[in-house]
Design a protein that fits this description.
By secondary structure, this protein is of the alpha/beta class. It is 39% helix and 17% strand. It has a six-stranded parallel beta sheet with strand order 8-7-9-10-6-11, with helices on both faces. Strands 1-3-2 form a three-stranded antiparallel beta sheet. α2 runs parallel beside α4. The longest helix has 19 residues. It starts with 12 loop residues before the first strand and ends with a helix.
Length: 333
């Protein structure tokens, strides 16, 4: 493999050589047409060469060390059966740059803290950014978690994966997923069908996350048995949700009264996750006060209630999504 060298960033130059003991999986590491290595070179300003099972990295010492950590991390992910793409390259770079994660994504992981991951029937979910790693920890240690940040950061997806994992292991008896039935800035008018058919379009993202974690027949069976319930927030009034993992999505579209009602449904042996983007409020009727912002203001700092915050740097969809979010929320907007 040979490509035009990428100019290294300023600083002391360094060159290292990595030796991988399973050359048969290196095509997965490099990506089609070496696209993963090209992405790594462009992100870090290093020059990468490969011959057989040896990979050389040259550039500024700090960037070379980071590239080494990223390549080792990606190699281990492939050994664990994960798919590696340029999105994961970006995520691994972000993780490698975060010093508090030393021992979680680095080579000495076996000697220190175990990898952070969530296992479901269909896949294993691992953090792609430091904020996601913090969020996953909070999902196992706190009773009520607020996940705040832009779309595409994995707030709801990771919460659903954790909920499915706990349902499978029997830690909880029910999984309850809810959203406000609010239209995103448009009037859809009268919707035909029964109540389920009217509200299902609003709840589709929750169904999608469930099907990503469980086989379709299990999703349908557990919904039919009542183990999994997906319903608008209005259906929560008057209930006590015990022995359950409860997720409220799009929480920024609740009013303060709705949020208070939902939070007070909390029962014994339950965990509640409230996900939302404070900058995307679509509450109809000219109401500007968001129940999410109100709850964060009132509850931050209370024991057993945690706040996990995400930024555009944590977006794990196509990289352009992060740039779009920055353009809309940056200075001068």
């Amino acid at each position: 493999m040979s490509r035009k060298p990428v100019p290294a960033q300023s600083g002391e130059r360094s060159r290292i050589e990595l030796l991988f003991d399973k050359p048969q999986i290196l095509p997965q590491l490099f990506g089609q047409y070496d696209r993963n290595l090209v992405a790594l070179e462009s992100r870090l300003g290093v020059y990468i060469t490969a011959r057989g099972n040896k990979v050389g990295v040259e550039g500024a010492a700090e960037q070379v060390a980071m590239a080494r950590d990223v390549l080792n991390d990606l190699y281990k992910r492939i050994l664990r059966g994960e798919d590696v793409d340029t999105g994961l390259v970006d995520a691994s770079i972000a993780m490698a740059a975060e010093p508090v994660l030393d021992g979680i994504v680095r080579a000495d992981v076996g000697e220190r803290a175990p990898p952070i991951m969530i296992r479901t029937r269909k896949k294993t979910i691992v953090p792609r950014t430091p904020a996601q790693a913090h969020y996953m920890r909070e999902l196992t240690t706190n009773d009520m978690i607020f996940a705040l940040g832009p779309a595409g950061t994995g707030k709801t997806y990771i919460a659903v994966a954790q909920a499915v994992s706990q349902l499978i292991t029997g830690s909880v008896q029910r999984l309850i997923l809810s959203r406000p039935a609010v239209e995103a800035g448009e009037k859809l008018g009268f919707l035909p069908g029964d109540m389920k058919e009217k509200v299902d379009p609003y709840l589709r993202p929750l169904y999608d996350a469930l099907h990503d974690c469980l086989p379709a027949e299990q999703v349908e069976r557990r919904i039919a048995s009542g183990e999994i319930e997906i319903a608008p927030i209005a259906f929560m009034r008057g209930r006590t949700l015990a022995d359950a993992f409860i997720i409220l999505d799009e929480a920024q579209n609740t009013t303060p009264a709705q949020m208070k009602m939902f939070l007070t449904r909390f029962g014994e042996n339950s965990r509640m996750v409230i996900c939302g983007d404070p900058n995307q409020v679509d509450i109809p009727g000219g109401v500007t006060a968001s129940g999410l912002a109100d709850a964060v203001r009132r509850l931050e700092g209370i024991e057993a209630i945690s706040m996990s915050r995400f930024t555009s740097a944590d977006i794990v969809r196509h990289p352009i999504v992060g740039r779009v979010v920055e353009a809309y929320e940056g200075p001068g907007v």
